Amino acid sequence: MALKILDDLNIKTTDNSRQRQQHYNVDLDDFMGHSSSSQRTHIDPTHNLQQLMQTAHQFRDQMQATGNRDQEEFLDDLVSQLLEESQSNAKGPPPASDRFIRLLPKIKSGQIDSDETCIICKDNLKKSESSVTQMPCGHYFDRECLVPWLELHHTCPLCRFKVETEQTVKEEEEEEARDFMYG
């Protein structure tokens, strides 16, 4: 039945060996009548509507079938990529050092001169009831917002100013030990 409809509408199926998907090429002149208005013959409008509906249903069915395959393939690729990344030793940027987080200055909200806003929680820091801290780059944050960020990243959330990591602390300690030994 479907092949008869495709033949009636002069729809050709092509097989692309690379993608193995069917594509439909509709000859609109056959579907709508003739291309030139002077050559048009009278065609029953309900007949065209029926053909249009049949073609629309075929395209919908094809798109749904292809879409599901594409979505399944996308999800398979995504899961494979995530599994591969979880099994590799690749990691994101290192967190800030514990020493840096511990030594962050605690500033009372009343000591802030301007109407600074924590970009993480959007609270006005001058009116904030929580403790406020300042990064070396000069940006202010609610301490409760900044510490979790620094436990995952070694940068200012606003300007990406880099702060020390455990690795840089270790390197500094090793350098100090060498300087002490060799005077």
From TrEMBL:
CDD domains: RING-H2_PA-TM-RING. Keywords: Metal-binding, Zinc, Zinc-finger. GO terms for biological process: protein ubiquitination. Residues 118-160 form the RING-type domain. PROSITE patterns: ZF_RING_2. The keyword Zinc applies. It comes from the Eukaryota. Gene3D superfamilies: Zinc/RING finger domain, C3HC4 (zinc finger). One of its GO terms (molecular function) is zinc ion binding. This is RING-type domain-containing protein. The lineage of its organism: Eukaryota, Fungi, Fungi incertae sedis, Mucoromycota, Mucoromycotina.
